[in-house]
TrEMBL record:
SUPFAM superfamilies: Histidine-containing phosphotransfer domain, HPT domain (SSF47226). This is HPt (Histidine-containing phosphotransfer) domain-containing protein. InterPro entries: HPT_dom_sf, Sig_transdc_His_kin_Hpt_dom. It holds the Pfam family Hpt.
């Protein structure tokens, strides 16, 4: 078992051994999108932070149509900054808004992105 209590095969353990975890945001993509402007990066990450918090606070109680619309907007924003796993999670909800597993997965991905933004921006965003 790994630290999260999940069973891994020896192949999985060896494959991940010594590799740092991939950040939830592709920093090279973000850098290209913002032309290397650190202030712009902080601004767009702050906007994503705000959008994520809004989506997370409303998506569970939303109708399937509203969930799909929220997920669609989040998918575009996530792709724009390089949060590709988050975009995939949002895409899954857009395609199947009634599956609770999709909502749980989106929440996990969103929490990772929110923590990354908080660390990266050192609390400078007050969303």
């Amino acid at each position: 078992m790994n630290e999260g209590g999940h069973v891994t095969t020896s192949g999985q353990a060896l494959e991940n051994c010594g590799k740092p975890a991939e950040p939830p945001i592709d920093l090279a993509h973000l850098d290209r999108q913002t032309m290397g402007d650190a202030a712009l990066q902080a601004e767009v990450l702050g906007l994503l932070d705000d959008q994520l918090r809004t989506v997370l606070s409303t998506i569970r109680d939303a109708s399937p149509e509203e969930r799909a619309a929220l997920a669609h907007g989040l998918k575009g924003a996530a792709r724009g900054v390089g949060a590709f796993a988050l975009a995939e999670g949002a895409d899954a909800i857009e395609k199947a808004p009634d599956l609770d597993g999709n909502l749980r997965r989106l929440d996990e991905l969103a929490q990772a992105v929110l923590m990354f933004i908080a660390r990266r921006c050192n609390g400078t965003h007050n969303g």
